[in-house]
Amino acid sequence: MPDYPSQMNEPNILPDDLDLPAEGRPAERSTAAYEYSINASTMGSSPDQARKLLYGSAAAAFLGALFSGFSTSDFVAHLDRQVHSIHCSFIPGASAQLGESGCRTVMMSPYSSLFRESMWGGLPISLLALAVFCYLLARSVTFSLENTLTKRHTTYLLAAWTLPVIMSVIYGLISASAIGALCKLCVGVYLTSAVGWGAAFLAHRKAPVEVGDHLGAWGRWFAVGCAYVLTMVLIFLVFSPKDVAPANGCGSLVKRSDDAGIMLTLHQGRGQADAVAVLDPLCPACRAFDKRIAASGLHDELAMKTVLFPLDNSCNWMVKDALHPGACKVSEALLCDEQRAPEVMAWAFEHQEEIKDKAKTNPKSVHSDLLKQFPHLKGCLGSGRIKNKLNKSLRWAVANALPVLTPQLFVEGTRVCDEDTDLGLEYTVAAMVDAAKSKGGR
User: What is the pLDDT of residue 95?
Assistant: First the structure.
Protein backbone atom coordinates (compact mmCIF):
# COMPACT_ATOMS: atom_id res chain seq x y z
CA MET A 1 0.00 0.00 0.00
CA PRO A 2 1.49 3.36 -0.94
CA ASP A 3 3.01 5.35 1.90
CA TYR A 4 1.12 8.68 1.63
CA PRO A 5 2.69 11.77 3.13
CA SER A 6 1.40 12.55 6.61
CA GLN A 7 0.28 16.05 5.49
CA MET A 8 -1.75 14.94 2.49
CA ASN A 9 -4.79 16.84 3.88
CA GLU A 10 -2.94 20.15 4.16
CA PRO A 11 -5.05 22.69 2.25
CA ASN A 12 -2.05 24.57 0.83
CA ILE A 13 -0.21 23.21 -2.22
CA LEU A 14 3.53 23.10 -1.60
CA PRO A 15 5.75 24.54 -4.30
CA ASP A 16 8.03 22.10 -6.14
CA ASP A 17 11.22 23.86 -5.11
CA LEU A 18 10.45 23.83 -1.35
CA ASP A 19 13.19 22.16 0.72
CA LEU A 20 11.85 19.30 2.84
CA PRO A 21 13.51 17.91 5.96
CA ALA A 22 14.78 14.35 5.95
CA GLU A 23 11.69 12.77 7.46
CA GLY A 24 9.53 14.00 4.58
CA ARG A 25 7.37 16.48 6.58
CA PRO A 26 6.70 19.97 5.26
CA ALA A 27 9.08 22.74 6.31
CA GLU A 28 8.03 24.78 9.34
CA ARG A 29 5.72 27.68 8.61
CA SER A 30 6.54 31.24 9.66
CA THR A 31 6.50 31.98 13.38
CA ALA A 32 3.48 34.29 13.11
CA ALA A 33 1.39 31.80 11.16
CA TYR A 34 2.49 28.98 13.45
CA GLU A 35 1.53 30.96 16.59
CA TYR A 36 -1.77 31.92 14.96
CA SER A 37 -2.73 28.31 14.29
CA ILE A 38 -1.67 27.15 17.77
CA ASN A 39 -3.64 29.87 19.57
CA ALA A 40 -6.67 29.43 17.34
CA SER A 41 -6.88 25.76 18.16
CA THR A 42 -5.95 25.75 21.84
CA MET A 43 -7.34 28.92 23.40
CA GLY A 44 -11.01 28.66 22.47
CA SER A 45 -10.83 31.53 19.99
CA SER A 46 -13.30 31.85 17.15
CA PRO A 47 -12.69 34.44 14.40
CA ASP A 48 -16.23 33.96 13.06
CA GLN A 49 -17.81 34.70 16.44
CA ALA A 50 -15.52 37.70 16.88
CA ARG A 51 -16.61 38.95 13.47
CA LYS A 52 -20.29 38.70 14.42
CA LEU A 53 -19.65 40.60 17.64
CA LEU A 54 -18.10 43.40 15.61
CA TYR A 55 -21.48 43.76 13.91
CA GLY A 56 -22.83 44.59 17.38
CA SER A 57 -20.04 47.13 17.82
CA ALA A 58 -21.00 48.72 14.50
CA ALA A 59 -24.69 48.84 15.48
CA ALA A 60 -23.85 50.54 18.80
CA ALA A 61 -21.65 53.07 16.99
CA PHE A 62 -24.47 53.78 14.54
CA LEU A 63 -26.94 54.47 17.38
CA GLY A 64 -24.35 56.61 19.17
CA ALA A 65 -23.89 58.62 15.99
CA LEU A 66 -27.67 59.13 15.78
CA PHE A 67 -27.97 60.35 19.37
CA SER A 68 -24.97 62.68 19.13
CA GLY A 69 -26.03 63.77 15.64
CA PHE A 70 -29.45 64.99 16.78
CA SER A 71 -27.85 66.71 19.76
CA THR A 72 -25.39 68.46 17.44
CA SER A 73 -28.22 69.42 15.10
CA ASP A 74 -30.12 71.07 17.97
CA PHE A 75 -26.98 72.94 19.02
CA VAL A 76 -26.26 74.18 15.50
CA ALA A 77 -29.87 75.32 15.05
CA HIS A 78 -29.45 77.68 18.01
CA LEU A 79 -26.41 79.37 16.50
CA ASP A 80 -28.79 81.81 14.80
CA ARG A 81 -29.43 83.16 18.37
CA GLN A 82 -33.14 82.27 18.22
CA VAL A 83 -35.24 79.80 20.21
CA HIS A 84 -35.85 76.40 18.60
CA SER A 85 -37.34 73.07 19.61
CA ILE A 86 -34.97 70.48 21.05
CA HIS A 87 -35.05 66.70 20.67
CA CYS A 88 -35.19 64.96 24.02
CA SER A 89 -36.15 61.31 23.69
CA PHE A 90 -34.63 57.86 23.97
CA ILE A 91 -35.84 57.40 20.38
CA PRO A 92 -33.42 59.40 18.18
CA GLY A 93 -35.24 62.13 16.26
CA ALA A 94 -38.49 61.93 18.25
CA SER A 95 -40.14 64.36 20.67
CA ALA A 96 -38.80 67.77 19.64
CA GLN A 97 -40.16 70.36 22.06
CA LEU A 98 -39.86 74.07 22.79
CA GLY A 99 -40.38 73.98 26.56
CA GLU A 100 -37.94 73.32 29.34
CA SER A 101 -36.37 69.87 29.35
CA GLY A 102 -33.30 68.13 30.66
CA CYS A 103 -31.77 68.26 27.18
CA ARG A 104 -32.28 72.03 26.94
CA THR A 105 -30.82 72.57 30.40
CA VAL A 106 -27.75 70.50 29.56
CA MET A 107 -27.26 72.15 26.17
CA MET A 108 -27.46 75.66 27.65
CA SER A 109 -25.00 74.79 30.42
CA PRO A 110 -21.32 75.75 30.00
CA TYR A 111 -20.42 72.05 29.95
CA SER A 112 -22.01 71.42 26.55
CA SER A 113 -19.24 73.04 24.52
CA LEU A 114 -15.60 74.12 24.54
CA PHE A 115 -14.02 77.54 23.91
CA ARG A 116 -17.23 79.40 24.77
CA GLU A 117 -15.37 82.63 25.45
CA SER A 118 -13.61 82.50 22.08
CA MET A 119 -16.59 81.78 19.81
CA TRP A 120 -20.34 82.30 20.14
CA GLY A 121 -21.78 79.09 21.61
CA GLY A 122 -18.41 77.32 21.55
CA LEU A 123 -17.46 74.00 19.98
CA PRO A 124 -20.15 71.43 20.92
CA ILE A 125 -18.99 68.29 22.71
CA SER A 126 -21.69 66.39 20.81
CA LEU A 127 -19.91 67.20 17.53
CA LEU A 128 -16.75 65.52 18.80
CA ALA A 129 -18.85 62.55 19.94
CA LEU A 130 -20.44 62.35 16.49
CA ALA A 131 -17.01 62.21 14.84
CA VAL A 132 -15.84 59.49 17.23
CA PHE A 133 -18.93 57.34 16.70
CA CYS A 134 -18.67 57.69 12.92
CA TYR A 135 -15.07 56.56 13.13
CA LEU A 136 -15.95 53.62 15.41
CA LEU A 137 -18.68 52.60 12.96
CA ALA A 138 -16.26 52.66 10.02
CA ARG A 139 -13.55 50.86 11.99
CA SER A 140 -15.94 48.15 13.25
CA VAL A 141 -17.17 47.48 9.71
CA THR A 142 -13.70 47.39 8.12
CA PHE A 143 -12.37 45.10 10.84
CA SER A 144 -15.31 42.73 10.41
CA LEU A 145 -14.47 42.47 6.70
CA GLU A 146 -10.82 41.54 7.31
CA ASN A 147 -9.83 38.15 5.90
CA THR A 148 -7.86 37.42 9.04
CA LEU A 149 -9.39 38.99 12.14
CA THR A 150 -7.07 38.86 15.16
CA LYS A 151 -6.44 40.54 18.48
CA ARG A 152 -4.36 43.07 16.59
CA HIS A 153 -7.66 44.55 15.41
CA THR A 154 -9.82 43.98 18.48
CA THR A 155 -7.23 45.37 20.91
CA TYR A 156 -7.25 48.68 19.06
CA LEU A 157 -11.04 48.73 18.75
CA LEU A 158 -11.47 48.03 22.46
CA ALA A 159 -9.07 50.89 23.30
CA ALA A 160 -10.94 53.20 20.91
CA TRP A 161 -14.30 52.38 22.55
CA THR A 162 -12.79 53.21 25.95
CA LEU A 163 -12.74 56.92 25.03
CA PRO A 164 -16.55 57.39 24.77
CA VAL A 165 -17.01 55.20 27.86
CA ILE A 166 -14.71 57.42 29.94
CA MET A 167 -16.34 60.60 28.62
CA SER A 168 -19.79 59.13 29.36
CA VAL A 169 -18.82 58.55 32.98
CA ILE A 170 -17.38 62.07 33.31
CA TYR A 171 -20.36 63.82 31.72
CA GLY A 172 -22.86 61.62 33.54
CA LEU A 173 -21.36 62.76 36.84
CA ILE A 174 -21.37 66.39 35.69
CA SER A 175 -25.04 66.16 34.68
CA ALA A 176 -26.02 64.66 38.01
CA SER A 177 -23.92 66.87 40.30
CA ALA A 178 -23.16 70.19 38.59
CA ILE A 179 -26.07 70.64 36.18
CA GLY A 180 -28.79 68.79 38.08
CA ALA A 181 -30.56 67.66 34.91
CA LEU A 182 -30.56 64.53 32.76
CA CYS A 183 -30.53 64.64 28.98
CA LYS A 184 -32.17 61.63 27.32
CA LEU A 185 -30.03 61.97 24.20
CA CYS A 186 -26.98 62.00 26.44
CA VAL A 187 -28.18 58.89 28.24
CA GLY A 188 -28.54 57.27 24.82
CA VAL A 189 -24.89 58.09 24.13
CA TYR A 190 -23.86 56.67 27.52
CA LEU A 191 -25.72 53.39 26.90
CA THR A 192 -24.49 52.90 23.34
CA SER A 193 -20.93 53.57 24.53
CA ALA A 194 -21.27 50.83 27.14
CA VAL A 195 -22.84 48.38 24.65
CA GLY A 196 -20.18 49.14 22.03
CA TRP A 197 -17.38 48.60 24.52
CA GLY A 198 -18.96 45.34 25.66
CA ALA A 199 -19.24 44.06 22.09
CA ALA A 200 -15.61 44.99 21.40
CA PHE A 201 -14.52 43.27 24.63
CA LEU A 202 -16.31 40.03 23.75
CA ALA A 203 -14.93 40.15 20.21
CA HIS A 204 -11.46 40.60 21.67
CA ARG A 205 -11.88 37.47 23.79
CA LYS A 206 -12.92 35.44 20.76
CA ALA A 207 -10.28 36.75 18.36
CA PRO A 208 -7.08 34.69 17.96
CA VAL A 209 -3.68 36.09 18.86
CA GLU A 210 -1.39 37.38 16.16
CA VAL A 211 2.26 37.69 17.11
CA GLY A 212 4.13 40.69 15.80
CA ASP A 213 4.65 44.43 16.10
CA HIS A 214 1.27 46.18 15.90
CA LEU A 215 2.28 49.70 16.85
CA GLY A 216 2.62 50.80 13.23
CA ALA A 217 -0.92 49.70 12.34
CA TRP A 218 -2.35 51.15 15.54
CA GLY A 219 -0.64 54.47 14.83
CA ARG A 220 -2.10 54.62 11.32
CA TRP A 221 -5.59 53.80 12.56
CA PHE A 222 -5.32 56.43 15.30
CA ALA A 223 -4.24 59.05 12.74
CA VAL A 224 -7.34 58.26 10.69
CA GLY A 225 -9.51 58.72 13.80
CA CYS A 226 -7.93 62.11 14.46
CA ALA A 227 -8.64 63.03 10.83
CA TYR A 228 -12.35 62.24 11.37
CA VAL A 229 -12.51 64.59 14.36
CA LEU A 230 -10.44 67.32 12.70
CA THR A 231 -12.62 67.25 9.58
CA MET A 232 -15.81 67.64 11.61
CA VAL A 233 -14.31 70.51 13.60
CA LEU A 234 -13.12 72.33 10.48
CA ILE A 235 -16.54 72.02 8.84
CA PHE A 236 -18.18 73.42 11.98
CA LEU A 237 -15.73 76.33 12.17
CA VAL A 238 -16.32 77.22 8.52
CA PHE A 239 -20.08 77.54 9.01
CA SER A 240 -20.13 78.92 12.58
CA PRO A 241 -21.36 82.54 13.11
CA LYS A 242 -18.75 85.18 12.28
CA ASP A 243 -20.73 88.43 12.30
CA VAL A 244 -21.79 88.51 15.96
CA ALA A 245 -21.03 91.82 17.71
CA PRO A 246 -22.09 91.10 21.32
CA ALA A 247 -20.23 94.03 22.88
CA ASN A 248 -22.76 96.39 21.25
CA GLY A 249 -25.53 94.92 23.39
CA CYS A 250 -29.23 95.75 23.21
CA GLY A 251 -29.68 99.07 24.94
CA SER A 252 -28.16 100.66 28.02
CA LEU A 253 -29.04 101.92 31.46
CA VAL A 254 -30.17 105.51 31.75
CA LYS A 255 -29.48 105.68 35.48
CA ARG A 256 -26.79 103.31 36.77
CA SER A 257 -26.47 104.73 40.28
CA ASP A 258 -28.10 103.14 43.34
CA ASP A 259 -29.22 106.19 45.30
CA ALA A 260 -32.02 104.26 47.05
CA GLY A 261 -29.72 101.42 48.13
CA ILE A 262 -31.86 98.71 46.55
CA MET A 263 -29.08 96.70 44.89
CA LEU A 264 -27.98 93.45 46.53
CA THR A 265 -24.59 91.75 46.45
CA LEU A 266 -25.40 88.05 46.07
CA HIS A 267 -21.97 87.03 44.81
CA GLN A 268 -18.63 88.45 45.87
CA GLY A 269 -17.08 88.97 42.45
CA ARG A 270 -13.81 90.86 42.21
CA GLY A 271 -13.88 91.59 38.51
CA GLN A 272 -13.04 94.90 36.90
CA ALA A 273 -16.37 95.28 35.10
CA ASP A 274 -19.50 96.49 36.88
CA ALA A 275 -22.58 94.37 36.22
CA VAL A 276 -26.23 94.48 37.22
CA ALA A 277 -28.49 91.42 37.08
CA VAL A 278 -32.26 91.99 37.12
CA LEU A 279 -33.88 88.93 38.66
CA ASP A 280 -37.14 87.53 39.98
CA PRO A 281 -36.47 85.06 42.84
CA LEU A 282 -39.24 82.71 41.63
CA CYS A 283 -38.37 82.87 37.93
CA PRO A 284 -37.13 79.47 36.60
CA ALA A 285 -35.15 81.21 33.85
CA CYS A 286 -33.44 83.34 36.51
CA ARG A 287 -32.47 80.22 38.43
CA ALA A 288 -31.01 78.67 35.27
CA PHE A 289 -29.26 81.95 34.45
CA ASP A 290 -27.71 82.11 37.92
CA LYS A 291 -26.45 78.54 37.57
CA ARG A 292 -24.90 79.31 34.17
CA ILE A 293 -23.16 82.38 35.54
CA ALA A 294 -21.78 80.41 38.49
CA ALA A 295 -20.70 77.40 36.43
CA SER A 296 -18.98 79.55 33.81
CA GLY A 297 -16.86 81.36 36.39
CA LEU A 298 -18.14 84.74 35.22
CA HIS A 299 -18.67 85.84 38.82
CA ASP A 300 -14.90 86.22 39.03
CA GLU A 301 -14.93 88.50 35.98
CA LEU A 302 -17.72 90.76 37.19
CA ALA A 303 -18.47 93.00 40.15
CA MET A 304 -22.15 92.09 40.09
CA LYS A 305 -25.10 93.67 41.84
CA THR A 306 -28.68 92.36 41.77
CA VAL A 307 -31.88 94.35 41.32
CA LEU A 308 -35.13 92.59 42.25
CA PHE A 309 -37.93 92.73 39.70
CA PRO A 310 -40.69 90.33 40.86
CA LEU A 311 -43.25 89.53 38.17
CA ASP A 312 -46.03 89.42 40.74
CA ASN A 313 -48.99 91.81 40.58
CA SER A 314 -49.31 91.98 44.35
CA CYS A 315 -46.54 94.60 44.29
CA ASN A 316 -45.63 95.12 40.63
CA TRP A 317 -48.16 97.32 38.84
CA MET A 318 -46.46 96.62 35.49
CA VAL A 319 -47.85 93.06 35.26
CA LYS A 320 -51.58 92.36 34.95
CA ASP A 321 -51.42 88.82 36.32
CA ALA A 322 -49.02 87.20 38.74
CA LEU A 323 -46.56 85.30 36.56
CA HIS A 324 -44.70 84.18 39.69
CA PRO A 325 -47.06 84.43 42.67
CA GLY A 326 -45.21 84.88 45.94
CA ALA A 327 -42.26 86.65 44.31
CA CYS A 328 -43.05 89.96 46.00
CA LYS A 329 -42.95 88.45 49.47
CA VAL A 330 -39.67 86.63 48.75
CA SER A 331 -38.23 89.87 47.38
CA GLU A 332 -39.12 91.60 50.65
CA ALA A 333 -37.22 88.89 52.53
CA LEU A 334 -34.17 89.45 50.33
CA LEU A 335 -34.21 93.20 50.97
CA CYS A 336 -34.65 92.78 54.73
CA ASP A 337 -31.15 91.43 55.35
CA GLU A 338 -28.52 91.94 52.65
CA GLN A 339 -25.96 89.88 54.56
CA ARG A 340 -28.14 86.77 54.42
CA ALA A 341 -29.73 87.56 51.06
CA PRO A 342 -27.65 84.88 49.25
CA GLU A 343 -29.04 82.29 51.67
CA VAL A 344 -32.62 83.44 51.08
CA MET A 345 -32.15 83.45 47.31
CA ALA A 346 -30.70 79.93 47.34
CA TRP A 347 -33.70 78.71 49.37
CA ALA A 348 -36.14 80.46 47.00
CA PHE A 349 -34.48 78.97 43.91
CA GLU A 350 -34.59 75.50 45.42
CA HIS A 351 -38.28 75.71 46.39
CA GLN A 352 -39.66 77.78 43.51
CA GLU A 353 -42.49 75.49 42.47
CA GLU A 354 -43.57 74.79 46.04
CA ILE A 355 -43.68 78.49 46.92
CA LYS A 356 -45.66 79.43 43.80
CA ASP A 357 -48.17 76.62 44.29
CA LYS A 358 -48.83 77.71 47.89
CA ALA A 359 -49.06 81.38 46.92
CA LYS A 360 -51.79 80.61 44.38
CA THR A 361 -54.10 79.12 46.99
CA ASN A 362 -52.96 80.90 50.14
CA PRO A 363 -50.74 83.98 49.65
CA LYS A 364 -50.19 84.38 53.41
CA SER A 365 -48.52 80.97 53.59
CA VAL A 366 -45.42 82.37 51.89
CA HIS A 367 -45.02 84.90 54.69
CA SER A 368 -45.28 82.22 57.39
CA ASP A 369 -42.94 79.84 55.53
CA LEU A 370 -40.31 82.57 55.24
CA LEU A 371 -40.50 83.38 58.94
CA LYS A 372 -40.28 79.69 59.79
CA GLN A 373 -37.19 79.29 57.62
CA PHE A 374 -35.63 82.66 58.56
CA PRO A 375 -36.88 83.75 62.02
CA HIS A 376 -34.62 86.82 62.01
CA LEU A 377 -36.93 88.40 59.40
CA LYS A 378 -39.69 88.92 61.98
CA GLY A 379 -40.52 92.59 62.32
CA CYS A 380 -39.11 93.41 58.89
CA LEU A 381 -41.02 91.15 56.53
CA GLY A 382 -44.23 92.87 55.44
CA SER A 383 -43.35 96.18 57.11
CA GLY A 384 -44.07 99.50 55.42
CA ARG A 385 -40.35 100.28 55.28
CA ILE A 386 -39.46 97.16 53.32
CA LYS A 387 -42.48 97.46 51.02
CA ASN A 388 -41.35 100.98 50.20
CA LYS A 389 -37.83 99.73 49.46
CA LEU A 390 -39.19 97.09 47.07
CA ASN A 391 -41.26 99.80 45.39
CA LYS A 392 -38.07 101.82 44.87
CA SER A 393 -36.48 98.75 43.25
CA LEU A 394 -39.36 98.59 40.78
CA ARG A 395 -39.13 102.33 40.13
CA TRP A 396 -35.42 101.92 39.35
CA ALA A 397 -36.54 99.57 36.55
CA VAL A 398 -39.04 102.18 35.35
CA ALA A 399 -36.40 104.93 35.39
CA ASN A 400 -34.22 102.80 33.13
CA ALA A 401 -37.12 101.84 30.84
CA LEU A 402 -36.48 98.13 31.35
CA PRO A 403 -38.67 95.61 29.52
CA VAL A 404 -40.96 93.63 31.78
CA LEU A 405 -39.05 90.35 31.77
CA THR A 406 -36.39 88.51 33.71
CA PRO A 407 -33.53 87.75 33.75
CA GLN A 408 -31.64 90.74 32.38
CA LEU A 409 -27.92 91.44 32.59
CA PHE A 410 -26.10 94.74 32.16
CA VAL A 411 -22.30 94.91 31.87
CA GLU A 412 -20.86 98.39 32.31
CA GLY A 413 -24.34 99.75 31.66
CA THR A 414 -24.85 97.85 28.39
CA ARG A 415 -27.65 95.29 28.25
CA VAL A 416 -26.80 91.77 27.15
CA CYS A 417 -29.23 90.84 24.38
CA ASP A 418 -31.80 88.20 25.37
CA GLU A 419 -30.54 85.86 22.65
CA ASP A 420 -27.04 86.04 24.15
CA THR A 421 -28.01 84.94 27.66
CA ASP A 422 -28.00 81.24 26.78
CA LEU A 423 -25.40 79.63 24.51
CA GLY A 424 -23.63 82.91 23.84
CA LEU A 425 -23.43 84.10 27.46
CA GLU A 426 -19.72 83.47 28.05
CA TYR A 427 -18.67 84.84 24.66
CA THR A 428 -20.84 87.95 25.04
CA VAL A 429 -19.80 88.76 28.61
CA ALA A 430 -16.15 88.14 27.79
CA ALA A 431 -16.40 90.58 24.88
CA MET A 432 -18.09 93.18 27.09
CA VAL A 433 -15.51 92.72 29.85
CA ASP A 434 -12.68 93.14 27.35
CA ALA A 435 -14.35 96.29 26.06
CA ALA A 436 -14.64 97.61 29.61
CA LYS A 437 -10.98 96.83 30.32
CA SER A 438 -9.91 98.63 27.18
CA LYS A 439 -11.79 101.71 28.46
CA GLY A 440 -10.19 101.50 31.88
CA GLY A 441 -12.91 99.49 33.71
CA ARG A 442 -14.25 100.93 36.91
Answer: 66
Using CA atoms, how far residue 7 sits from 13, 27, 410, 421, in Å, is 11, 11, 87, 78
Domain hosting residue 143, numbered range: 47-239
Instruction: Report which DSSP code applies to 271.
Output: -
Identify the pLDDT of residue 98. 65
Q: Residues 203-252: pLDDT tens digits? A: 999 999 887 778 999 999 999 999 999 999 999 999 887 777 766 788 88
Domain shared by 222 and 261, yes or no: no
So what's the pLDDT on residue 23?
47
Tell whether 331 and 198 lie within a shared domain.
no
- Domain CATH number, residue 214: 1.20.1440.130
What's the mean pLDDT in 277-287?
A: 94
pLDDT, greater one: 278 or 91: 278
Task: Write the CB contacts of 327 (distance below 8 Å, at least 6 apart in sequence).
Answer: 280, 281, 282, 283, 310, 311, 312
Q: What angle is formed at CA 415 by the lines to CA 412 and CA 419, rounded to 5 degrees?
A: 140
- The secondary structure element, H or E, covering residue 347 is helix 341-350
Among positive and negative, which fits the CA dihedral 86, 120, 276, 394?
Answer: negative
- Give me the mean pLDDT over the 126-152 stretch: 95
Q: What is the DSSP letter of 376?
A: G
Same domain, 188 and 329: no
Residues 311, 187 within the same domain: no
- Residue 36 backbone phi and psi in degrees, to 5: -60, -50
Q: Domain boundary at 192, 210, 239, which?
A: 239
Answer yes or no: is 2 within a domain.
no
